[in-house]
Design goal:
The chain has one domain. Helix content is 57%, strand content 0%. With 159 residues, the protein is mostly helical. The chain is elongated and about 70 Å long.
Length: 159
């Protein structure tokens, strides 16, 4: 008797999960995947820094996001859209002409393994940097972003 109830409950739960998954696809948020035109990038200290940043950072922090197939299915689409929108707002390597509030923290976030986030690294093997690559990216970001910051202050002062 107990086995029959468990079997029925499992079947109902499975049907409910499938139905709920189908229903959440109707929510329009998270499928408007756009990559606006890249306007201006920082002057990279080296091509290697840009390559490493492209591997580990650009999907969320540039207008060159690669949108995988699962990014079109809710609820994953909601999470991905949120992460990309938030990442671009905080630091966008493709819109370097506007103020980049988080640029001073980028190297430290890479060095402390806060960026790229663990969930992203698990899903994107290319973002899994070796210790040497992590150090090179952090140092390269520090040089690139501090030089960019100095140029910005100099340009502002000359106006």
């Amino acid at each position: 008797m107990r086995r029959i109830i468990t079997k029925r409950a499992s079947k109902r739960l499975g049907v409910a999960v499938v139905a709920l998954t189908a229903i959440v696809q109707l929510v329009p948020y998270g499928r408007g995947h756009t990559n606006p035109r890249s306007v201006a990038e920082p002057q990279w200290d080296s091509p290697q820094t840009r390559v490493l940043a492209q591997r580990a950072c650009f999907d969320c922090h540039s207008n060159e996001t690669r949108w995988p197939a699962y990014s079109r299915l809710a609820p994953a689409s909601w999470l991905i859209q949120h992460d990309v929108s938030e990442g671009r707002a905080e630091l966008n390597f493709s819109e370097w002409q506007r103020p980049q509030e988080e640029s001073t923290n980028a190297a430290g976030a890479v060095r402390e393994r806060e960026m790229p986030p663990l969930a992203y690294r698990l899903m994107h093997s290319g973002a899994r940097l070796t210790e040497q690559e992590r150090d090179a990216l952090a140092q390269g970001l520090m040089r690139t972003l501090s030089a960019s910051s100095r140029r910005e202050r100099r340009d502002t002062a000359s106006r």
